[in-house]
């Protein structure tokens, strides 16, 4: 793509999300979502083949439906409250419709079906933008309407997402689908604590974005999209195998890595609000996620997968320089001792 | 406590910056020096614990475990030298780094004041151990072993996290030194029963309790020698240590909640001892023997009398040294014959008489021969369980008999009789191996002269 056009389109995506996050008028928020959606379609279709067309179409259809539902919720809210300012939603029906719309945008169960298929159909960099940047806008709206969200629906969707994210990822060998299911599960964790403490949702979002960025960049560096091609990294850049191990364990939520921090804080917040069975269940279901991360680490860093002789020649090509990778790796694995600093997020 | 933790952390730059011919010398020497520093902790004031800071303390229960941990690192390094000799330098350094990281986390776990900090470090010890087992183990089964190890422990410990946080909400603080003073009885309700279960299951899986022990034979057998040593000597004791700490908060439910676990442990110790008699794999025999000894510790902790706590602590230290020594001996066999089958290398006494002396001492301490500290531990546990219920003496007596049977079976099969003819070309014992066995045995024998330092806080 022409670099100038690509920059413009990327800026539009960023602008769309910024408009959503900074507006106080409901209509502007809807406009921001639409801008974001329209501008990201060319980015998803950077390579022009039927697979990306299918993925982009699926993405467009689901997101457009969600925007329409959002519009309906806004209108119902307007009807009952008489104003367009974004505060809590004044009508339970509007609240439920808005929650469903935002869940569709985020990829929460039962609206999660598009996430693996869209993520699989696009390139790694587009998948990166899809799973990290695109989650910011809906999450910011959920944050702002959090006082009026129906707790039953939200918690049901959250718990089901963690279940689906865990079980769905078990049978996958394609890395992008694994990341998609991981995203579904993490969205579940984030929305579970939204009503109790939106700060922790933001914390979880921050750490999730860091870890997903790290994972995608490690995949981009070795240009691997399947478990099999990831298992060749010991040949090309042996250090990457250790980094993949650390980041995957962090995503699985193992102490002492930073992925444990959001889980710990969320369990603490839920327990303080006298729900004990829910966090126990969520924590145990997160172990399903850990299982397929462990399977990835087994094939990548903890064993030396057999490879043919032509695979051993890959070292002759230049390794990609990804500048942002070292600080991301440090942040996605070593942040746990900084937990007392969470008070700055309030 | 930082005087032990910071030198241990600095062992990692030491390995990475050492020259190729100095890594083993440097790391072993400095880790031995660190263990000498930790010996000063054994001087405990009689009424309270040594309180170093807000985050670290050491009391008569954790001090011997800490000394055992720091003592074990040089031994692990000495034991690993042979099987790593053919690996490239970076992998050797990675291995030593894993061991050092594990050591740091273990030291911090045993001295943690706050229970959540203990939990985080307890979980954190899983990661280096998993890497050691799956990356450096020898057979394909090591992958399955690592998964079983990780998931059994995590399934047990996630409810513990929730339980600790809810206790913190109820009582305001999880600082162990405070809790022992303002402890009150838990009211009797269904949710407190689940709280009891949530607190204890993590440690039961770690000990391991008989029904949840499936990860242990896999992990112990598939791990390389340092992994087996640290698993048997220390990581199992984490479970015992945790149980000893957390049962102070869980009265009075323990009086009736403990029954199922007591039954499982009492039956399990006989079952696992009997299985030892039918094992063909030497490391598997020692692994099941660990389960059996730890079942005694579980019985002791759940009975909650002063004598049983003394027995539990003494048994933990004694079993740590003995089990680790048995694994080293099994490894010395494995390095020569590359097989763990017991009957492949028999009659070693004719070929390696000094090693046979170490085998004899290890087997004798394993079957709790007086006056070793193993006997003190087992005897205290047997006596306190007899006072708890007279019938347990039948099971305990049977267990002691069967323990003697399999220890002697192991000794006689590997050492006595006519040697198998294909091993007459094995290398003689290295000085390093003899030193390793001596360093295991000397503390064990010396402690029988002054066992009060390992008898824990009820002495």
Automatic annotation (TrEMBL), chain A:
Subunit structure: Core subunit of respiratory chain NADH dehydrogenase (Complex I) which is composed of 45 different subunits. Interacts with TMEM242.
Function: Core subunit of the mitochondrial membrane respiratory chain NADH dehydrogenase (Complex I) which catalyzes electron transfer from NADH through the respiratory chain, using ubiquinone as an electron acceptor. Essential for the catalytic activity and assembly of complex I.
Top-level taxon: Eukaryota
Pfam families cross-referenced by the UniProt entry: NADH_dehy_S2_C, Proton_antipo_M
Keyword annotations from UniProtKB, A to Z: Electron transport, Membrane, Mitochondrion, Mitochondrion inner membrane, NAD, Respiratory chain, Translocase, Transmembrane, Transmembrane helix, Transport, Ubiquinone
Localization of this protein: Mitochondrion inner membrane
EC number(s) from the headed UniProt entry: 7.1.1.2
Protein family per UniProt: Belongs to the complex I subunit 2 family.
Principal subcellular localisation of the protein: mitochondrion
Protein name from the UniProt record: NADH-ubiquinone oxidoreductase chain 2
Boundaries of every NADH dehydrogenase subunit 2 C-terminal domain copy: 290-342
Catalytic activity, as annotated: a ubiquinone + NADH + 5 H(+)(in) = a ubiquinol + NAD(+) + 4 H(+)(out)
TrEMBL record, chain B:
InterPro entries registered for this protein in UniProt: NADH4_N (IPR000260), NADH_Q_OxRdtase_chainM/4 (IPR010227), NADH_UbQ_OxRdtase (IPR003918), ND/Mrp_TM (IPR001750)
A Gene Ontology molecular function term of the record: NADH dehydrogenase (ubiquinone) activity
Chief location category: mitochondrion
Catalytic reaction(s) noted: a ubiquinone + NADH + 5 H(+)(in) = a ubiquinol + NAD(+) + 4 H(+)(out)
Any one annotated GO CC term: mitochondrial membrane
EC number: 7.1.1.2
Topology in membrane: Multi-pass membrane protein
Coiled coil: none
Domain NADH:ubiquinone oxidoreductase chain 4 N-terminal: 1-109
Nucleotide-binding as UniProt keyword: no
Keywords from the UniProt entry: Electron transport, Membrane, Mitochondrion, NAD, Respiratory chain, Translocase, Transmembrane, Transmembrane helix, Transport, Ubiquinone
Keyword Oxidoreductase tagged: no
Residues passing through the membrane, by range: 21-41, 61-80, 92-110, 116-133, 145-167, 193-216, 223-244, 256-277, 284-303, 309-330, 351-369, 389-412
Intracellular or extracellular location(s): Mitochondrion membrane
An individual GO BP term: ATP synthesis coupled electron transport
Taxonomy, superkingdom: Eukaryota
Occurrences of domain NADH:quinone oxidoreductase/Mrp antiporter transmembrane (ranges): 112-400
Pfam family membership, one: Proton_antipo_M
Family, similarity comment: Belongs to the complex I subunit 4 family.
UniProt xrefs under PANTHER family: NADH-UBIQUINONE OXIDOREDUCTASE CHAIN 4
Physiological role: Core subunit of the mitochondrial membrane respiratory chain NADH dehydrogenase (Complex I) which catalyzes electron transfer from NADH through the respiratory chain, using ubiquinone as an electron acceptor. Essential for the catalytic activity and assembly of complex I.
NCBIfam families reported for this sequence: NDH_I_M (TIGR01972)
Name of the featured protein: NADH-ubiquinone oxidoreductase chain 4
Taxonomic placement: Eukaryota, Metazoa, Chordata, Craniata, Vertebrata
């Amino acid at each position: 793509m022409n670099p100038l056009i690509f920059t413009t389109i990327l800026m539009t995506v960023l602008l769309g999300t910024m408009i959503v996050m900074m507006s106080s008028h409901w209509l502007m928020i809807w406009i921001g979502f639409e801008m974001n959606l329209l501008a990201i379609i060319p980015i998803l279709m950077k390579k022009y083949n039927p697979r990306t067309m299918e993925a982009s179409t699926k993405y467009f259809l689901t997101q457009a439906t969600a925007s329409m539902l959002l519009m309906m919720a806004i209108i119902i809210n307007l009807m009952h409250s008489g104003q367009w300012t974004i505060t809590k939603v004044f009508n339970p029906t509007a609240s439920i419709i808005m929650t469903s719309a935002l869940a569709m945008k985020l990829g929460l169960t039962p609206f999660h079906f598009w996430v693996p298929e869209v993520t699989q159909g696009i390139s790694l960099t587009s998948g990166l933008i899809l799973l990290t940047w695109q989650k910011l806008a809906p999450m910011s709206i959920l944050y702002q309407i959090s006082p009026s969200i129906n707790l039953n629906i939200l918690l049901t969707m959250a718990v089901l997402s963690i279940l689906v994210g865990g079980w769905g990822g078990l049978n996958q060998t394609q890395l992008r689908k694994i990341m998609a299911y991981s995203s579904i599960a993490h969205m579940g964790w984030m929305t579970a604590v939204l009503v109790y403490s939106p700060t922790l949702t933001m914390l979880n979002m921050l750490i999730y974005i860091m870890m997903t960025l790290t994972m995608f960049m490690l995949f981009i560096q070795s240009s691997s999209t399947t478990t099999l091609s990831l298992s060749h990294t010991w040949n090309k850049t042996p250090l990457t195998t250790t980094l993949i191990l650390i980041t995957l364990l962090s995503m699985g939520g193992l102490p002492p890595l930073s992925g444990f921090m959001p889980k710990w804080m969320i369990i603490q917040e839920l327990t303080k609000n006298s729900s004990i069975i829910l966090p126990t269940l969520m924590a145990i279901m997160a172990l399903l996620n850990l299982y397929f991360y462990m399977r990835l680490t087994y094939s990548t860093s903890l064993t030396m997968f057999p490879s043919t002789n032509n695979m051993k020649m890959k070292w002759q090509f230049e390794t990609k320089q990804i500048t942002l990778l070292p600080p991301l790796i440090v942040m996605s694995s070593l942040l746990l001792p900084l937990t007392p600093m969470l008070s700055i997020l309030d | 406590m930082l005087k032990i933790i910071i030198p241990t952390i600095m062992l990692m730059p030491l390995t990475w910056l050492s020259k190729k011919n100095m890594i083993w010398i440097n790391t072993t020497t400095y880790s031995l020096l660190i263990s000498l520093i930790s010996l000063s902790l054994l001087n405990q004031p009689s009424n309270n614990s040594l309180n170093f800071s807000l985050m670290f303390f050491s009391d008569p229960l954790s001090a011997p475990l800490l000394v055992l941990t720091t003592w074990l690192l040089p031994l692990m390094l000495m034991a690993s030298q042979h099987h790593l000799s053919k690996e490239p330098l970076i992998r050797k350094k990675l291995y030593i780094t894993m061991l050092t990281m594990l050591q740091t986390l273990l030291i911090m776990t045993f001295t943690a004041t706050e229970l959540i900090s203990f939990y985080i470090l307890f979980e954190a010890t899983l990661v280096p151990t998993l890497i050691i087992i799956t990356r450096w183990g020898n057979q394909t089964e090591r992958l399955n072993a690592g998964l079983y190890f990780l998931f059994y422990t995590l399934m047990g410990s996630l409810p513990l996290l929730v339980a600790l946080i809810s206790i913190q909400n109820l009582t305001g603080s999880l600082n162990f030194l405070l809790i022992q003073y303002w402890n009150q009885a838990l009211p009797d309700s269904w949710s407190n029963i689940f709280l009891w279960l949530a607190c204890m299951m993590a440690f039961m899986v770690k000990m391991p309790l008989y029904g949840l022990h499936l990860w242990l034979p896999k992990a112990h057998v598939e791990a390389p020698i340092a992994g087996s040593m640290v698993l048997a000597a220390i990581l199992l004791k984490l479970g015992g240590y945790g149980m000893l700490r957390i049962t102070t908060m869980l009265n009075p439910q323990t009086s009736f909640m403990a029954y199922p676990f007591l039954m499982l442990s009492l039956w399990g110790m006989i079952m696992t001892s009997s299985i030892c008699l039918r094992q063909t794999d030497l490391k598997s025999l020692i692994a099941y023997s660990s389960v059996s000894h730890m079942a005694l510790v579980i019985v002791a902790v759940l009975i909650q009398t002063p004598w049983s706590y003394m027995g539990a602590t003494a048994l933990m230290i004694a079993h740590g040294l003995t089990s680790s020594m048995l694994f080293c001996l099994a490894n010395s066999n494995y390095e020569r014959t590359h097989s763990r089958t017991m009957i492949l290398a028999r009659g070693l006494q004719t070929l390696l008489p000094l090693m046979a002396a170490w085998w004899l001492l290890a087997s004798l301490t394993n079957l709790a021969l007086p006056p070793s500290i193993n006997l003190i531990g087992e005897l205290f546990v047997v006596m306190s369980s007899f006072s708890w219920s007279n019938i347990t003496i039948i099971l305990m007596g049977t267990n002691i008999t069967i323990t003697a049977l399999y220890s002697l079976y192991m000794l006689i099969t590997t050492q006595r009789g006519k040697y198998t003819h294909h091993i007459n070309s094995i290398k003689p014992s290295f000085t390093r191996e003899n030193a390793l066995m001596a360093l295991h045995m000397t503390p064990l024998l010396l402690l029988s002269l002054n066992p009060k330092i390992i008898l824990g806080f009820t002495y």
